[in-house]
Design brief:
Blueprint: H1 6-13, E1 17-20, H2 22-26, H3 32-47, E2 51-54, H4 60-69, E3 73-74, H5 85-99
Parallel strand pairs: 1-2, 2-3
């Protein structure tokens, strides 16, 4: 029987982005190992020239930790609750009108 590591898929699939699961983000301030895993993923991504998205950001503290650690992309309730597609389309159109 042969096992495969999830890291093997990073090499074989040649992605352009990694995601950090919300289970690690949720425990950032409580669990030292979660912070270490987040740092390790960010270091690996930098070495492989990959973008990273952190999932499940719910607090300002989590967002700031990730920004300081060099994570440029994130998603979660801290930024916005899920919205219907029409509401997002209208918001993006309104933003484009203000900027352009």
């Amino acid at each position: 029987m042969s096992g495969h590591s999830s890291l093997e898929y990073v090499e074989r699939l040649d992605p352009d982005r990694l995601k950090i699961d919300q289970t690690f983000i949720r425990k950032l301030n409580e669990d030292r190992s979660s912070g270490a895993i987040v740092q390790a993923v960010l270091t690996l991504a930098r070495a492989l020239d990959l973008d990273v998205t952190a999932e499940g950001i719910e607090t300002a503290e989590q967002a700031e930790y990730l920004r300081a650690a060099g994570c440029r992309y994130g998603q979660g309730f801290y930024f916005a609750r899920p919205q219907p597609r029409r509401a997002i389309t209208l918001a993006l159109e309104a933003e484009r009108l203000q900027v352009g």
